[in-house]
Amino acid sequence: MKRAALPAAIAAGLATAWAYASAQTDAIQFVGKTKYLNNAKAVVVHTIDDSTKLVADTADAMDKYGIKGTFFISTEQDPPVEERFYNQLQVWLLWPRLQKAVENGHEIGAHAVTHPCSRPQSDTTSDNYRAFCDANYNDAELAGSRDTILARTTQPYVWTWAYPCGHCSTFDFVQKRIAAAGYIVARNYPGEAQGLHVRPDLQTWADNPFDAPYTQVVQKAGGRRGATAPPIDVASLDAKFDEVYQKGGIYHFMSHPQSLDFGPDGFYEKHLAHIGRRADVWYVPMGPVYAFRMINDHTIVRATSKGSAKARFAVSNSLDRKIYSGSLTLEFAAPPSVTVTSNGRKLAARATGVTNRWNEEFVRREGDRLFVTVRSNTTLEFR
Ligand SMILES: [Zn+2]
Q1: What's residue 24's pLDDT?
Q2: Contact (Cβ atoms closer than 8 angstroms) between residue 185 and residue 212
Q3: Full residue range of the structural domain in which residue 248 is found
Q4: CA 197 – ligand 1 centroid, Å
Q5: Average of pLDDT values for 211-222?
Q6: Is 172 a member of any domain?
Q7: In contact, 50 and 88? CB cutoff 8 Å
Q8: Is the terminal CB of the chain with fewer CB neighbours within 10 Å at N or C?
């Protein structure tokens, strides 16, 4: 009796589809969607703020250790002199390097056009603060930065926003404007003046993606306001990663490039070396990992009439395909000899290795399990 062999964790609704599949194929069974892409045990996300020339050094260091991330860029072409270095030096020189980063699996996120940051961070409740947010969260900042990123790179969509200096992230009306401009997630930077930015300790997806914290900072100072300096203790940074990794969580660390030391003896690269190139970690930028949650939650896998195949499954959702273009991973019990096609294209088999993209398609075998990583809205055929 095949149904008795199914893991008890599978809900009754799925078991019905399953029983149908197993009756049809006698061997190939859909087990479920994996929590992370390619059945990774844990996730590493890196976010990097501001358009300094050191963005290029940061991207080079990340590539050296196989870390993927989101570069939050303020897109103003010619910022006033007093705004330069800390935020917006020479953004026009960064675009070729940013384009290369997009091609390498990184993401460019928006950090406004002019990086509005003139309020003190201790003031979050006054009428003046609210007026500042109302004035600066306007179409020019929200849509302008998005459109420049789309014009200057081949990135097909801009998923992610970061609040300049962490301002305004708690206002519902600001969050709604960010969502209306098409962003699906916005990263905060809470309470630098009080040191709250050092270790918010988020270890999974944020409950509210429009006020999303991270796990910890990795940098030797705050942003441009020179607030409480976090400890630069590589052992402590590494231990926090180890904790999140052991729990199978999402480790999300953020940095300002102007507050890093580059080179293999600096704290930044020592930490990257500790967390990088692990076969059971998914390295992915912030926007795509939030898009993944949506894709995973909304995709339905259904056994359909198998025709001449050993089994056939429809993989579908009704999400906007421009935004939710990434892959998800489906776990099957399947005999060793099968091949899988997705909408008629044979999926390549991949050996164990680093998972560092979010929209590829492939299959990977682990014992009697076959992990099929595929974009949704397709038909899988097992032959
Ligand atoms: Zn900034």
Answers
A1: 44
A2: yes
A3: 43-287
A4: 13
A5: 91
A6: yes
A7: yes
A8: N
**Chain centre to alpha carbon of residue 316:** 22
Token output for 295: 């894709």
Does 247 share its domain with 315? no
278 Cα: distance to centroid of ligand 1 (angstroms): 30
Distance from the alpha carbon of residue 86 to the mean position of ligand 1, in angstroms: 8
The alpha carbon of 114 and the centre of ligand 1 are apart by a number of angstroms equal to 10
Does 273 share its domain with 372? Answer: no
End-to-end CA distance of the chain: 24
Of 255, 287, 319, the one marking the end of a domain is 287
Contact 189, 254 (CB under 8 A): yes
Overall domain count for the chain? 2
- Residue 278, domain CATH: 3.20.20.370
Distance 65 CA to ligand 1 centre (A): 24
- Note the pTM of the prediction, 2 decimals: 0.90
Centroid of ligand 1 to alpha carbon of 189 (angstroms): 9
Same domain, 113 and 157: yes
Q: How many residues does the chain have?
A: 383
Give tens-digit pLDDT for 150-182. Answer: 999 999 999 999 999 999 999 999 999 999 999
Question: Are the C-beta atoms of residues 251 and 45 closer than 8 Å to each other?
Answer: yes
**Which tokens belong to 303?**
């056994």
Ligand 1 centroid–CA 50 distance in Å is 5
